[in-house]
Every structure is written in structure tokens, then in C-alpha cells.
Write a structure and sequence with these properties.
CATH architecture of chain B: Alpha-Beta Barrel
Mean pLDDT of chain A: 95
Distance between the termini of chain A: 33 Å
Strand content of chain B: 25-35%
Strand order of the largest sheet of chain B: 2-3-4-5-7
Low-confidence stretches of chain A: none
Number of domains of chain B: 1
Mean pLDDT of chain B: 93
Structural class of chain B: alpha/beta
Order of helices and strands of chain B: EHEHEHEHEHEE
Number of domains of chain A: 2
Largest interface: A-B, 44 and 39 residues
Number of helices of chain B: 5
Largest sheet of chain B: 5 strands, mixed, barrel
Low-confidence stretches of chain B: 180-184
Number of strands of chain B: 7
Oligomer: heterodimer
Number of strands of chain A: 10
Helix content of chain A: 40-55%
Shape of chain A: globular
Largest sheet of chain A: 4 strands, mixed
Radius of gyration of chain B: 15 Å
Strand order of the largest sheet of chain A: 4-2-5-10
Radius of gyration of chain A: 20 Å
Strand content of chain A: 15-25%
Chain lengths: 293, 184
């Protein structure tokens, strides 16, 4: 009986070579730095139509022209080509062969950043030497195991103009929606012109502090055409977006109607004693690209 | 829309107002965090007469806060948009005192910098952050000047034509960021 089971499981397992993963990551690094996802471009155009300030419109004109030039001339959209965050969903019937997953991903980053003429912005030791690693590695890798026999890879080159302006706190359970709203709006207010508005606001609520931070990053790359699946949360997203756009920070901080393109909230159950909230700010150059292997 | 040529004389600087849209043509120098640290260390070490020892004469010049992506073969420069200026705030007043005419970056400056801009009659310009591909088309020449070991953070001399910026802080304390600015 045992033997038969083993054979059955073996039959289902799919092998994926590390080389395939490396190539995919390299391609995604290059692609994501030259061209924004359609939903992001759509939101930028939508926002331009709503912007009332003249300087705001001047910014939107440059922003859209820049996106066209980057795509056409194969020049990175922004010179900060980011630290690479990689989300990997691995089907539990997948067997990775020929090396380790993290080596494969980092090799992909190395190749992609060289091939795409992308800037290498990573330093080895964050405090003392701060020596550039020279190839934009290592990436920040988040893996999760799912069902099935595929690997889903999402590459997110994250710029630090906006990453630097992010925030994390643990509110009291009774602070509720108002407390969350205040923390998010205050974080955006404090960031002001620095994170290159119009921004996208990723909010992670619940779990533990690292879970909230992780959710806020995942929220950033959720389609801008989708709201949170829960109606109450979707309502909170809308309310916070309205509050943020009342701040009059405007495109590039020059004043105007559009400070944020979207507020995306992702949540997780949490402890009776706490309410962790993480705000991950992303600039309008919200780069990410995915592939399923 | 105003057009101006470098060097950025005092006369030009004082003619600008926060909110003005400007096209800059001529020479500008790139420098960001590490290059600033070295420039200021040199000035401090040399005392009152630092200029001869600096990699370039700061007088009436413009520093652009950028770290470009590598240039493709046969191209002048890669993507070269502005980086966040606040990280340079602690060094800027010393450079202004040494004669620097203007700076280009993105985002608000500290109170100290705004005061120093008034004192030394210097201008802070903002370029559109994230528009590095567009801005790269305005660069006609690029030459390495100093600190090659810093890679993308080295000081480069750029020759630009019609480089689009906005006057963010003028010589009179007018500031596009914050309360005293009515947006137009």
C-alpha cells in the first residue's frame, strides 16, 4: 500500500530547472523597469483628468511622456531601479532541480540588471561598510507554498524614495478604523513631496508586525482596478483615499487634487491585545511583473 | 516658461520666483549623498579657501542630485531623474557658502536650507521625480569629473539643453512646498 502511494505522488511531481527560474527573473527585472502594468498607467491617466492644478497637470504631462520614452527607447522609467523584491508561490507538486531557489533568483537579478542597463543600488552591510555589491543582489525573497504544480513569480523593483517614507505601528485594539485612518493619513502627510506623489498606499492591517509589513507590500502590487474583497474594508480604502487627496500635497508635492492614486488594504486576523498597521508607500512608478512557470 | 543658461549668476537667481517653470541649458554637475560628504569634508579640511582643492569650482554652478543608470553602448547617459533632496540638507548650506548657485532635486528642503538659500541668494529647483527617461533626452554630453569609485554616485559634468525644472525655493524665501505657496 505504501509503495503504491509513493508512486502515485511521484507521478504528480513536476520538475522545474533552476535555469528556467533564473531566465524568468532576469526577464521580469528588465521588463518591469521599462514598462508599467496597464492598471497603473490607466490610473495615472484617470488621475490626470481629475487634476485641477496647472502645475499638477504639467507633472502629469511629463509623467506620461516619460513612460512613452522609457518604453520606446528602452531606458529605465526611473533611475532608481530599486531593490528587487520577489514573491514566489510554489506549487507543492513542484520539484526544483539543479540548484537552490534563492541562488537561481539572485542569478536572475544579476543577469537582468546587467542586460537591462539597470542601476545597481544595493550595499552589502547596511551600517558600516555600505559597499555596493555591484550586481543589485541580494533580492528580498518571499516564498509561499500553494497547491498545484506551477511556480508563480512576481518581481517588484522597489525604489527607496518611497520606501523611505513608509511607517509601521501597533495601535490599541479600540483605536479601530479611525485610528488606522489617522495613522495612514499622518504617514502620507509626513512624507509630503518626498515619495514622488502621486503615490500608491499599501496598508497591511493585523497579524504581527512582520505580517502587517508583508501585507502592506502585497497590497501595493494588488491591481489598482480591484478593491478589498470585504465591503467594509473597501469602504475604508475609499475614505482614506479621499482624506489623503484633501491634503493638497498634489503631484510631486506642488499642490493639487491628486496626492494618491489608490489606497490598497490587506488584512489578517490578529491578537486580542493589538492592532498592527503597516503603511508601505509606493511612487506612481509602481513596477511589478509576473510569470507562471 | 523661462529659459536660462548656466552659469547661474546672482542676477538670474534673483529674477526667479517659486513656481516658475524654467528650462535650463548649459553645464550642471551631478552629486548625491557620498559625493556631498566628500565635498564638505574637503571644504572643512581646507578651511577658508577650499575652491582650488575641490573637483570643480562651485561658484555660480548647479548641482543636480541624481545617480543615473548605466548608459547603453553609444548612448550619453541612462535614466537620470532627481533623487530626494532632504538627504543632502545637512551639506547644502556649506556648499552655498562656498558659492554654489543652485541645486536641482525633488521634495522639500529643511528650514536651515531655505534660510541659507535666502542668505546666499541661491535657488532650489525641483525636477519631476521618476521622469528619468524623459530627462535623459535633455543631456547632450556627460563627463566624469571626480570620485569614479562611487559608481553611479560619482560627480559628472552634464551638458543639458532645455532641462525642465520648477523653481521650488527662491532667493526671497518663497517656497513651493508648504503653506506660503498658493498653487497656480
Amino acid at each position: 500500500m505504501r509503495v503504491i502511494l509513493a508512486i502515485r505522488i511521484k507521478d504528480k511531481v513536476i520538475s522545474i530547472k533552476v535555469k528556467t527560474i533564473t531566465e524568468a527573473v532576469a526577464d521580469l527585472c528588465v521588463k518591469s523597469n521599462y514598462e508599467l502594468p496597464k492598471d497603473v498607467i490607466g490610473k495615472i491617466k484617470e488621475a490626470k483628468a481629475k487634476e485641477k492644478s496647472e502645475l499638477g497637470n504639467y507633472c502629469f504631462d511629463q509623467i506620461l511622456r516619460n513612460l512613452r520614452i522609457a518604453k520606446m527607447k528602452k531606458v529605465p522609467i526611473c533611475q532608481d531601479t530599486g531593490m528587487v523584491v520577489v514573491f514566489v508561490e510554489i506549487g507543492q507538486d513542484v520539484h526544483i532541480t539543479g540548484g537552490t531557489l534563492s541562488d537561481a533568483i539572485n542569478e536572475g537579478v544579476r543577469i537582468g540588471y546587467e542586460r537591462g542597463y539597470l542601476r545597481k543600488s544595493i550595499v552589502d552591510d547596511p551600517i558600516f561598510s555600505r559597499k555596493n555589491t555591484g550586481d543589485n543582489t541580494p533580492a528580498v525573497i518571499h516564498t509561499s507554498i500553494t497547491s498545484g504544480s506551477k511556480i508563480n513569480i512576481t518581481v517588484v523593483p522597489k525604489g527607496f524614495g518611497s520606501e523611505n517614507m513608509s511607517g509601521l505601528t501597533v495601535l490599541k485594539p479600540t483605536d479601530g478604523a479611525e485610528g488606522v485612518k489617522k495613522f495612514v493619513v499622518d504617514t502620507v502627510k509626513q512624507a509630503g513631496a518626498n515619495p514622488c506623489p502621486p503615490i500608491i498606499v499599501g496598508v497591511g492591517i493585523g497579524g504581527t508586525i512582520e505580517k502587517a509589513a508583508m501585507l502592506s507590500k502585497q497590497a501595493l502590487i494588488r491591481s489598482l482596478n480591484k478593491s478589498n474583497v470585504d465591503a467594509k474594508m473597501a469602504g475604508l480604502e475609499k475614505q482614506i483615499l479621499i482624506e489623503i487627496n484633501k491634503l493638497n500635497i498634489g503631484p510631486q508635492g506642488f499642490g493639487g487634487s491628486i496626492t494618491a492614486l489608490s489606497v490598497n488594504i490587506e488584512t489578517y486576523p490578529t491578537h486580542i491585545a493589538g492592532l498592527p498597521v503597516a503603511v508601505n508607500i509606493g511612487c506612481y512608478v509602481s513596477r511589478h511583473a509576473s510569470v507562471i512557470l | 516658461m523661462k529659459k536660462l543658461n548656466t552659469p547661474l549668476t546672482k542676477e538670474i537667481r534673483c529674477s526667479l520666483r517659486a513656481g516658475d517653470r524654467v528650462f535650463i541649458s548649459g553645464i550642471i554637475y551631478t552629486a548625491r549623498d557620498m559625493a556631498h560628504k566628500r565635498l564638505v569634508e574637503t571644504i572643512k579640511k581646507e578651511g577658508k579657501l577650499p575652491l582650488g582643492r575641490l573637483p570643480f569650482d562651485l561658484h555660480n554652478q548647479i548641482i543636480y542630485y541624481t545617480g543615473p543608470t548605466p548608459a547603453r553602448k553609444g548612448k550619453i547617459i541612462g535614466s537620470c531623474g532627481p533623487t530626494t533632496s532632504l538627504r543632502m540638507d545637512k551639506y547644502t548650506p556649506i556648499l552655498l557658502r562656498a558659492g554654489l548657485g543652485g541645486t536641482i532635486g525633488k521634495g522639500q528642503r529643511s528650514e536651515d536650507v531655505v534660510k541659507a538659500l535666502q542668505k546666499y541668494k541661491s535657488v532650489y529647483f525641483a525636477a519631476v521625480g521618476g521622469a528619468g527617461a524623459l530627462l535623459s533626452t535633455k543631456v547632450k554630453k556627460a563627463k566624469l569629473v571626480a570620485y569614479e569609485d562611487l559608481g553611479c554616485e560619482a560627480i559628472r559634468q552634464l551638458e543639458v539643453i532645455d532641462f525642465p525644472v520648477i523653481v521650488a525655493v527662491d532667493t526671497y524665501g518663497g517656497n513651493i512646498y508648504g503653506r506660503n505657496f498658493k498653487y497656480r
